[in-house]
Design brief:
Elements: H1 3-11, E1 22-26, H2 37-41, E2 46-58, E3 63-66, E4 74-75, H3 80-100, E5 111-120, H4 123-133, E6 144-153, E7 156-165
Antiparallel strand pairs: 1-5, 2-3, 2-5, 4-6, 6-7
Length: 182
């Protein structure tokens, strides 16, 4: 059975046990055309240009995102299905408020960071591999943390998971354009 047929079959499941869907904002090596996209993001359901509020820095061959603490709505866990459920629950609970947010609400030195918003219908298998790539180990030492934030997509707002830096190294060069690669 091909991937598209499996996806259609899973989407036809009952509303009592719907297929978990997860959205992930990416701004670096997971974007289309970048080195980790093919290994980790192929087979997505949808991809759209998107943006978040934050600060983008140059890392050693990859970008680093710093997000405002007040924008973080939830922290990622070791349970990808529960994280997809958290995203769905919070999205439905704040949908009206999200639509009222300005597209690029910046301030206090924050700017707009540009990337792509991927929708996946297989978080239970996909998210653990991306977590490993990003060095996200809940309860352990982490390079990044996975957090739920508001993402701008074509004049609307959606909630999505994104990897942000746990501890920013002093001296990291900021990318003022908010786009990587520059």
């Amino acid at each position: 059975m091909r991937a598209r047929e499996r996806r259609a079959e899973r989407h036809s499941s009952t509303s009592e046990n719907p297929t978990p869907v997860l959205t992930l904002f990416v701004y670096g090596t997971l974007k289309r055309g970048c080195r980790n996209h093919q290994d980790f993001c192929r087979g997505y359901v949808e991809v759209r240009e998107a943006s978040v509020r934050g600060r983008l820095y140059e890392g050693p061959g990859y970008p680093i995102l710093e997000a405002p603490e007040e924008d973080i709505l939830a922290q990622g866990t070791v349970d990808p299905v529960a994280d997809a459920a958290t995203q769905a629950r919070l999205s439905s609970g704040v949908r009206a408020g999200l639509q009222q947010c300005p597209e690029a609400a910046t301030g206090e030195g924050w700017n707009t960071v540009y990337g792509e918003l991927f929708t996946f219908d297989d978080p239970e298998t996909r998210l653990p591999s991306i977590d490993r790539l990003e060095g996200f180990h809940p309860g352990g030492r982490c390079l990044y943390r996975r957090v739920l934030v508001s993402v701008g997509v074509e004049r609307t707002r959606r909630l999505a998971w994104v990897y942000t830096i746990e501890n920013l190294a002093i001296g990291s060069r900021r990318i003022p354009s908010g786009r990587w690669p520059e």
